[in-house]
Amino acid sequence: MSKDQEYQPLISDTLEEADVDSPSPQSTPICKFSTWIMHSALAVLVAIETMALVVLIAILLRRPSQAACGMPLGSQKVLYSPALSAVEHEVQVYHLGFPGDLSPFQIHSSPELDQMWSDLYNYGVSRITKEEAAHLPNKTHAIPGDPGHYIAELDVFHNLHCLNKVRMALDPDYYPDWRISTSNNHIPTQKNATEHVAHCIDWLRQSIMCHADTSVIVWQWDPRANESLVKGNVAHTCRKFDKITEWAKQRVLVNAYDPTVHIEDDIVVPILHQEMS
């Protein structure tokens, strides 16, 4: 094969033909070294970018999701509550409520039991600041005689109040004022109790569905019964109730609230939330 066939100049034919015996500029040591430097630098740059991308992906995968942190997601509405700062989680196992695993609340109706229930929510009505009230999704009223503070109640305490009234209605002999009308026993004088308990039952239904607990109840084999039986003593992820009560007790409404006094203020509820008022 001739030298002309081995080497074809890249420059146009109109230029003077280079000496075929002289070395190509691209084959000189300096050019080879420059080319090697450029290729090496490019390889290093690509490697650095690849490593940075891998690290970023790893960080995003290990990062807790917004839902796990209690932060609002784009497709999810998380409403403001002044008590969110008090929320902490723990794992609990419920009392089964059957002989052998009864809770302290499963005793006969008595002043002692009444006090135990009262202690769960008798501090539930709170006084919050105007700044906190301005962030609520629904407007609340100012407290007469207590400038700069507004009345509020965490729903958990209303739920406990409602459950207590249902409990009392189940023992009308001990709590005659809470004897309710039934399908076959209409009691006109107990209209208030009947409507109140009906409200409470349905409110608790809605609350249970709203806070749908996804903890898993299981079935386990019982060799004595020779069958698998449902087991309710399972773990639940719970909000620490004592932290919520601590928050509420620090803000409990001590003085009597007069609902007949109207106080104008400059708090404006967003249009989105006015529909919920």
UniProtKB/TrEMBL annotation:
UniProt entry tagged with the keyword GTP-binding: no
Keyword field: Membrane, Transmembrane, Transmembrane helix
UniProt cross-references to Pfam families, sorted A to Z: UstYa
Pathway: Mycotoxin biosynthesis
A biological process from GO: mycotoxin biosynthetic process
Segments crossing the lipid bilayer: 36-61
Name recorded for this polypeptide: Tat pathway signal sequence
